[in-house]
Amino acid sequence: MEKFFKLEERGTNKKREMVAGITTFLSMAYILAVNPQILSGAGMDSGAVFTATCISAGIGTLIMAFLANYPVALASGMGLNAYFAYTVCPMVGTEHPWEVALAAILVEGIIFVLLSFTNFREKLVNEIPSNLKYGITVGIGLFVAIIGLKNSGAVTVTTEGGIALGDLASAGVTLSLVGVLIIAFMESKKIKGAILWGILITWVLGMLAELVGWYVPDPEAGVFSVMLNLDFSNVIPTAPYLFDFDFAWIGEHILEFAVIVFSFLYVDIFDTVGTLIGVAQRGNLLDEEGNLPRAKQALLSDAIGTIAGACLGTSTVTSYVESTAGVGAGGRTGLASVWTGGLFIVALFLSPIFLSIPSFATTPALIYVGFLMMKSVSNIHWSKHEADLGEVISAFLAIIMMPFTSSIANGIMFGIISYVVLKVAIGKIKEVPVVMWISAALFVLYMVVS
Length: 450
Known about the structure:
66% of the residues lie in helices and 3% in strands. The chain is an all-alpha fold and 450 residues long. β2 and β3 form a beta hairpin.
């Protein structure tokens, strides 16, 4: 184990990797409940989707562990599943529209694999300017924190589209904020596994709040009991939609299918790149030149995960930004991903336990990780004497557009396009790497066809 994962070389040990892997799993376990709910909106069986979500997440994460040796977990991507259910399926309009959507994801995954062999995605990760890399890291940190705040209800989206303060008197909001303080306190005392302990202690406090009547479950309003569920009497995995593809529709709708594939491809590429950069930066896994070692293996793992998810019957499987929670807990190798991937497989049979963890209990981990990633803002060369304004503005746009548009890909899009445009405007066109030109062109094409 030491020889394969190089634990000592990366300053970690088996116990720390275990805690990190469990922390990452707990931070993203919500996908096991959310993904079936979303895809059922397209007419899919929620039980089959749950099975596919568990197995595909386990497979993708284990491939990342053994092929790339990174503490990065994969699962059906949020945002991508909503696009699948609420945009693609209504557009298709067949009796089983998800069969066309799954075919598009399969094609996307195959294209991903081919791009991995051409080194395009590896170059994309390694040739992004340093200032923009740090900007992406900070933007992801803010995005992660907002996800946590929304999950707990600490902030809400108003009817006007803005973000407002939630009900601070509610148990979920209060406990989520208390959980942040618990993690900060434990970190200040250098207690190992502070983030994991923060999740578990917040969950226990939630159980107590429910017992005394402060936290009141209301299933019709989407507020469920947080008590530990140990009823396994009906836990029998439902068979997934294996190889459930519809290629007949494509013949008469080739342009529409191309747009669907490109949209999945666009979001998956740049979400994956942004996540890998953010996780690697947070874990000090970049090399001395700021490049990501074994980038090809990491990107290929993501592509294989996408294909596996399509074959099993779920939306695009991609690298998860919540992996930063495990990195924040000390994860530095693929051994952490072995634990995370293993727990996704176990969750297939222990769903009552894992689905009992409330979102407000994972919120503290996401907020604290956001804080840790925010510290990278100090590495950006803000002074005009240290870097030209084009690089700084591109980093700034990447930072603000991720949380404000709820999309990692959008932040990268604005960062890359602004970088290229400003480099050309100030007469430094020769400094723009070829991969940045290609990326900017892809983004412009996406804006035209979307």
